[in-house]
Amino acid sequence: MTAASTPVIFIHGLWLHPLSWTDWADMFEAAGYLPAAPGWPGVPDTVEAARANPDSIANHGINDVTSHYAAIISGLPAKPILIGHSFGGMIAEKLLGQDLAAAAIAIDAAQIKGVLPLPLSSLRSTLPVFRNPANQHLAVSLTAEQFRYSFGNAIDAGESNALYQQWTIPAPGRPLFEAAEANFSLHSPAKVNTTVDNRGPLLLIMGGQDHTVPEAITKSTLKQYRHSGAINDLIEFPDRGHSLTIDHGWREVAGACLDWLDKHGL
Does position 76 have pLDDT exceeding 60, yes or no? Predict the structure, then answer.
């Protein structure tokens, strides 16, 4: 399969609108791929509409989102390459484990079942959701200050505020509650098939300064794949935070993804 015939599906995470992938999609299209960035179920087409209609986004969990993207994949002419950020990275891992993708790139991916480290910075990043149990069924917005800590800590305040204004939307609290309970639930939706051998390659990317998904979580995620004979790679950007897909350095990360795909003939 050549790049010209390969679909690429970009999967956003919590608090970012799917249009935040626009520059990535343009770069991948220029490289010969067929990119698309569909939103999670209930996410409107624009940032403004998403902010005005938080109820449309609320109460969608991990399985809902996974099934939503599986349905999109079923309508494609070939298995896509999946590129996901944060909870979008977890969704990409789940779909790859179900053999629905040619490959997956999970960028600062949310913790899957089996990942035990829970650094204090990660707890602080999710506090806006966990401080109210009712948020499990609601959509929650971040303040600019909360976004600065969770996403923009490795960039200057001006850029963080600009990204907050440009891309943030309310996000369902349910996936965070599901991930937090994963290791206490036999059939957790955060469970990923990490032992399968006959699936496409997986690349995990981590930002070394990420508060939301610190490197301990990503390194522990990689260990979950130790019994798989498939390709499982890791790339670290030591000075980057959770905003690494949308801030001024996004092109370096996207370029590393393209180089990795080329290395594996994808």
Answer: yes
